[in-house]
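DOMAIN: structural biology
WANTED: fold as tokens
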Amino acid sequence: MLEVIDVHLKFGGVWALRGVTLHIHQGELLSIIGPNGAGKTSLLNVISGFYRPIKGKVIFKGQDITSLSPYRRAELGIGRTFQKVELYRDMTVLDNVISGFIPRIKYLKKPFAMVKASLWLREIREEEVKARYVAERILDYLDIGQCRYRIVRTLPYGIQKKVELARALAMDPEIILLDEPMGGLNFEEKEDMARYILSINEELGKTVVLIEHDLAAVMDLSERVIVMDYGKVIAEGSPEEVANDPKVIAAYMGEKVKR
């Protein structure tokens, strides 16, 4: 479904990615793990278009998307969340989720879109109603419908994480990139988030790529795990295989990975 081929990325004199090649299969739940600074978030930024590699390609469903903008990749079906919550903090939860629907709005791709919007034509009204309906359903799916009219900055961090996930789902992506969705959450919130991630993969049929530091969650959720260190892929396989790989154990400084 998605291929990263020999990708290199450099910031000044520091290599963030060095010859990364990986394949993501349709419908799988893949986790990418590694110590801090291993290049995991940089890899997601290359896939989603926030960073342009100095060498290599990103192929999505047979199409070379290496030069496409993040917006065009979102239109093609690549959604994501961020390591640090990136929401419109002074807008309501509902409006934040509706904003995720923007790549799906048809009239924006037609001539004179802003003129038509200002005239509030029928096709505009229909799109607005559809966007609101989709957002409401997703909020209920993630059990945060009761917060729909709350201003985002007034909400607990755990709820904000769900809102960001809801916004990504509003795009109806074929593949969703989750950058540490459990980071900063307490035990109960992590259990909830893990349940939603499994449901998104199994019930909604979305391909999920997960970056996560909670190794226990990774081992429980993932079908396949890719391990990175110093900008390179050092191991790949089932959770059991990578947990017992000597290179992975060395990268994590010992026995902690095995649990």
